[in-house]
TrEMBL record:
Biased composition (Low complexity): 65-76, 83-109
Record-annotated DNA-binding protein H-NS-like C-terminal domain positions: 104-149
InterPro entries per record: H-NS_C_dom, H-NS_C_dom_sf
Keywords assigned by UniProt, alphabetized: DNA-binding
Name of the protein in question: DNA-binding protein H-NS
Organism encoding this protein: Sphaerotilus mobilis
Annotated stretches, region: Disordered: 56-110
């Protein structure tokens, strides 16, 4: 087994990258051709595909029994509109990401830990606005440390 030099490996990488770019260009051309064919076949407009910034509520134009669904269903209030079904493959797209920073997964909710409590049954996690019972206890002479719940450990 012969050892390869760094220059030889870099040359192979460059060659493979050029080959990958050529393959991708061919595949993109094929996909664009199929999309254009489907658009022409179903008589789709930019509005039907959701590309004009407006939500289309008109029924999709159907051509035959196996016409692909192109109308998005309205999402529950407070959620992003579901993506349009792919007219070329008639497959349902993946669920739309939750509102927030793109590319970041939503963090799972953690249970709240009670940090402050009084003998009346009131409790507070220490997050957010101070509750009235806490303010009243402070005004009556107690300190936050008096109301703090002891932690285990």
């Amino acid at each position: 087994m012969t050892k390869k030099t760094l220059a030889q490996i870099q040359s192979q990488i460059d060659k493979l990258q050029k080959e990958a770019e050529a393959i991708r260009a061919r595949e993109v051309a094929d996909v664009v051709g199929r999309i254009k064919e489907a658009i022409a076949h179903y008589g789709l407009t930019a509005g039907d595909l959701g590309l004009d910034g407006k939500v289309s509520r008109a029924p999709a134009k159907k051509s035959g029994a196996k016409a692909a669904k192109t109308e998005a269903t309205p999402a529950p209030k407070g959620r992003r509109r579901a993506a349009v079904t792919n007219a070329v493959t008639a497959e349902k797209p993946a669920k739309a990401a939750k509102a927030g920073k793109a590319g970041k997964a939503a963090k799972p909710a953690r249970p709240s830990v009670i940090k402050f409590a009084d003998d009346q049954g009131h409790s507070w996690t220490g997050v957010g606005k101070r509750p009235n019972w806490f303010l009243a206890a402070i005004a009556s002479g107690k300190t936050a440390d008096d109301l703090r719940v002891p932690t285990a450990g």
